[in-house]
Amino acid sequence: MVVILALTILYRNLGFAPSIAALSATIFVMVSNTPLANMQERLHSKIMEAKDSRIKATSETLRSMRVLKLHSWESTFLKKLLKLRETERSWLKKYLYTCSAVAFLFWASPTLVSVVTFGVCIVLGTPLTSATVLSAIATFRILQEPINNLPELISVIAQTKVSLDRIQEFIKGKDQKKLFTVSL
Questions:
Q1: What is d(CA 96, CA 109) in angstroms, rounded to the nearest whole number?
Q2: DSSP codes joined into one string, 24-52
């Protein structure tokens, strides 16, 4: 609703072509985020898998501590755990870089939208008075809020989807085990 209102204000102040340019720049920024959001989802899944492996190995090590100490295998298992931890850290690093790219894209988006809009105004020869420029800048400020909230929303949606998928796999796994034990 806010975006429609802002585009209407731009249309009234600057005309049809600059408002369409602002809309297309906004859509471009939002669409360019789609591959990044998909990458975030995949990386979050990998992080969770690595975390599961590390926690499982840690738990197994703690349960078998007496045997490990008896045979002096502490350093071997420590190396295994550190390797699992490093794998998890590398996935987390990639995930955070992707989050940074998304944040950069959306923090730069208001500037991109205003540059494209004013560029179209200059090319078309639309008169830019101080009133129209200040009104347009205020309107871009209105557009900035929904655009800047989008990366966080996409990140939360990706994390939620991964969590729901994991819960579904867990529930299906339990149901399959129950069916397997009942049939025996």
A1: 20
A2: HHHHHHHHHHHHHHHHHHHHHHHHHHHHH
